[in-house]
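A reminder before we start the practical. When you read a complex entry, don't treat the lines as separate problems. The point of joint prediction is that each chain is placed relative to the others, so the output describes one connected object in space. Small molecules and nucleic acid strands, if listed, are placed in the same frame. In the example below there are two entries. Take a minute to note the order of the lines before looking further.
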Amino acid sequence: MGTLQNFSTRHPIWTVIILVLVVGLAWLVFAPWPPGLEQVLGRKRIFLNAILSGITLGALYFLVASGFTLVFGLMRNVNLAHGSLYLLGGYIGFGVVESTGYWLLAFPVVFVVVGVLGLLLQHQVFRRMEGEELRQTLVTIGLSIVLADLMLWYWGGQSYQVYSPDWLSGPMELPIISSLRSNGDPVYLTYPRVRLAILFAAIVIGLAMWYALNRSRLGMLIRAGVDDRDILAASGVHIQYVFLAVFGFGAGMAGIAGIVGGTFQSLSPGEDTRFLLASLVVVIVGGMGSIPGAAIGALIIGLAEQIGLVYAPTYSVVFTFLIMAVVLAFRPQGLLGAQR
Amino acid sequence: MAQALPTTAPGRLTTALERIPAPVWVIAFLLLLMPAFANNFVLYQIFGWSFILGMIALSLMVLAGYGGMVSLAQMTVAALAGYVVAILGTSGVPQISLGWPWWIHIPLAILIATLFGTLVGALAVRTEGIYTIMITLAIAAAFFYFTRQNYVIFNGYTGFNNVIPPALFGVEWRQPVPFYYLTLGCATLSYLAVVWMARTPFGLALQGVRDNPRRMGALGFHVTAHRIFAYTFASVIAAVGGILLVWQSAQVVPGTAGIPQVIDILVVAVVGGLRRPIGPFIGALIYAVLSVFSSDILHAFGMSGERFKLVIGLGFLAFVLFSPDGVLGLWEKYKARRAASPDPLLGGGR
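Here is the predicted structure of the whole assembly.
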């Protein structure tokens, strides 16, 4: 809470603007819309769906980008093979779900498999070129080319969809009024249950990560490493183990995000670069190495993409890009990034 | 002294010519006489294409080698130049193409692409090192998705076909031999321009900025301006390369600057070597030969011919892991080893 109070005392105007925006958004979401507003923005259901899809997409982006930003913050390694790990996790998850029929089982399996691949990469490849950031990045580019072609070889060019279990399929009614019937009865908004589950899971994972980072010993080491890697190593910590843990975790998270993405979208060649790009933009907007930054960045990009898709389909990509350019122009370290 | 003065100018020229080592003369003559013994396919598909790829990779080399900034947006700059040529000139999409004459649309294409490249540079220089890679990659991807979705200007998914060079001086420039000389000329000019740029005060200051921006700033050099101008300079080369690329394939589509193509330029530049301007052309030649003959090579090793990307990726990985300076680095290592090896007659180092 201390940081929040700091923020409100240091930036009173921004606090007011943010508060007004939040209240306005809450009114837009919960209140039945007057007809005048519907003429401007279209049906309320469409608007609400765009907002909800944006938030769920943001949740998915957060899952992908959180590992990316941690790896970057700690090791200064821009892992451009992150999208390939995402796609690989999705494919393996698809295989597990197909062969066993248990959707939940796919998560630990994929986390372990892709995480171990991440450990191997860190231990066998990146450790050998520590401090050579550019070379590490080039290696990850080479890896992403190789992995993409191997996956294309094995899984082919068709697209796969991971089927969600029965208890998560179908729609669910939300306590949000989408419109009023002519007799005055409210119509509540329905939304796919699996997407809400994903959103919920992303929030839980995000909070767990925040807790682990701020309260556990490993989290303390990681935060210290993000701030100053050399001093941490000099104070007797086996920094290679911390690197291994973070890289394995980041890779595993990318794999898990692959299952999630495969469940509510689909898996096909090319998705790897799409999600790599999404993580890049999210991390640039949110700030490198910051988990809350990744959450905020993911939310902004997800919302911008979906709202753009509904109201200006041709230019939805441009919105994402514009947000990135504006952030870069005025705050190059990202919204929550530390000044280095 | 009085006798020496009149001969200074021609004397400098002859010594400059004499200083060019023999292998360069051999290569120059080989390249000039290539149409005499190479068939049209080799001229057009392999050499034409590798000169073009080499030029675009050269623009990356200028930024990475002299400026220390790895920009992945150079292919995007090239593609934009191609798009402008298609939009302002003639193409198979008459609803959009304006059909302006060549002396307007070609300079405009170079100008617009250069402006765009400068703008990208102005954004990218706000960051350093690996951040630059991330931002330029994001810009390249945004351009790709934008051109794919925008039908009003960029004609969306289908792009423009039938974009052919104007028949200047009565020459059909898309015929293999004229196209070979056209690309050879452009590649040579841009190569010489880069060599010249590296020796100008600007080029030296740029290399100083690469090595120690803080010290250069303290010496009174405008670090940001040097970096942004490096983008401008590199974008001109990329733009010319892009126009040639569009003429070569007669089309420009969003996939011209898709993510794989953007990465390919980096692969070409790194495999060739980022230290010297000749590197990108060597890398481009290797890339073009590999991609044209990949299915034959792969079949020779008993693999299916579709795994071209795997070969490229593994080759790239091998270079990055074992010889970060590319083919040129290997060559220099070989020379250094030969120089260090003992002379068979005298013993000891040479």
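Discuss with your neighbour: The first helix of chain B runs from residue 8 to 19. What might explain this?
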